[in-house]
Structure formats: structure tokens, C-alpha cells
Amino acid sequence: MVLWTPGFDDVEVIGNTGIVGAANPGTSLPVSGTTLNYGTVTEVISAANNTQDSWGIEVVLIETCASAVAPEGSVDILIGGATADVLISSLLAGGAYAGSERRYFFPLHVPGGVRIAARIAHVSTVRTPRIFINLHGGSPPPFRVGRKVTTYGTKINNARGQAVTPSASGAAASVTQMTASTSEDHFYFLPGFQIAVDTSVNLRNINLGIGVGAATEERIGTWWLRTDAAEHQSMHPTMGAWRHVPAGSRLTLLASNSGTNDSDHDGHVYAVS
């Protein structure tokens, strides 16, 4: 596997957040007029403004939901011009609004001089989600950098990941297989998880992990999703787990709820190679 090594310099961040206060920062992602379909592909960082090779990409999503509204949504990050390729697929976006957010970081080489765009599939036809993308580059990072993100888990529809039923009331985590066999070697893993169609979510803490291997899978990483009665959802930490996992490995999503489950949960595992 070829690794990309940036030059020695100060760390630089390129993004679309602007440099002054704004009532609506970032970039608006239009939803489709047809529920669960993708909205228009929207430029987030232009090729002209992407002035450096980068070793990491951070994606932040806000305003994807509202109180008493079904929160399910999924975002694709694209790279290139009019015929852009999907760089990262199916970032689950449910429940990010009014002080909560969805945040993902991937140690990924993003070349300079190319356009970065995004699109969202959402259950709503009227929401106005917003996206921030930060590209980190310059001085070499103290970690390995990849060129590809693979999304594991069978999508229920464009806006949802694979169905997951967490164990309830603090019981040992349930195990949901995301893939029986990884397509290639991976070294960095991050889960995506959301409560989807429920419009009256409860205050809960859902503990998440990623399992590797057969029935006695090894757990790598611990994250938690916090939800509340206003349908907010936020996951912590936003960094993934670093572990070499060879091609052909089984991946699972582990989930344990602090209380009773809400109606529907879904998830993905994102893996960098």
C-alpha cells in the first residue's frame, strides 16, 4: 500500500466556515422535494480555494432535524467537477440541530486543486441542513494517512444505514454484522449511528463499539450517542479507532442502550484504507 507523506510546514486548515460571524455559517445542503431522495449536489469548497494537499478531512453537519420531526438523513461527500466521484458515502446525519451536531474526521489524502461537494438524502422535504468541511494539511501528521473510505452496512434506504437493535437497559452490547468480509486492508474505523423514524426520542446514552473477527469478536474503540426528548443526537468522540485489520475480516457494530429503545436505529462502519 502506498502512503502519502506531506511536506514539512505549518498545519493549515482550509474550510467553508468563513472568517466573520454569520447567522447561517457553512453551506446549505438542499433536500429533495421527494422524501428519501438525494438533493442537489452542492459545492462546499471550490477547486480554486482548495490550495493544498491535505491529510485529513473533518465533516460537520447541523440543522438536519427539528423537535418532533423524524430525524433520519445521510450525506455523501464528493470530489471533482461536474462528474464528481463519491469520496465518503452515507455519513449518518440524524438529530443534528439547535446546539447538537454530527462531526466526522478521517485521516484521508485530499489533493489540492479539486472541488469538494456534498449531497444529502433526508426523510424531510423542507429541512435546510448545513455542512462545514475542514481540510487539514501542511506539516506531517503523527498518524497514517489513507486514500479511500469504505462504508460497511446494508442501507435501508438513501437516508438510513443498516438496521441495528441495541441491547436495552445497560445489558451487554448487541452485535450487528456490517460485513462478513472486508474488501481490503483497513487501519482506521469510525461508526455512524442514528435514531431514524422516531419523532419522540427519549433521553438516552447509547454505547457503541466496533467488533472485528468471528463470534468472539475483538472490540476496537468506544463511542457514545447521546439523545434527548427534543430529538437531538450527538456522538462522541469524533475521532475513530486506529487498528490494522486485514482484508477478509468480519466487522460488527456493538450497541448498548442505557434505557429502553426508541423505535428505529441504524448504523454504518466507516473504514479507511
Polypeptide structure, described:
The structure is a single chain. This protein is mainly β. The protein folds into two domains: 12-137, Jelly Rolls; 149-272, Jelly Rolls (Sandwich). The protein is 0% helix and 44% strand. The strands form four sheets. Strands 1, 2, 4, 7 and 9 form a five-stranded antiparallel sheet that branches. Strands 10, 11, 13, 17 and 19 form a five-stranded antiparallel sheet that branches. A five-stranded antiparallel sheet has the order 12-18-14-15-16, with no helix packed on it. The relative contact order is 0.22. The mean pLDDT is 88.
Write the layout of secondary structure elements.
Layout: E1 12-15, E2 27-28, E3 42-45, E4 54-62, E5 73-79, E6 85-92, E7 102-106, E8 116-122, E9 130-137, E10 149-152, E11 162-163, E12 174-179, E13 186-195, E14 204-212, E15 218-227, E16 233-236, E17 241-245, E18 251-257, E19 265-272
Antiparallel strand pairs: 1-9, 2-9, 3-8, 4-7, 4-9, 5-6, 5-8, 10-19, 11-19, 12-18, 13-17, 13-19, 14-15, 14-18, 15-16
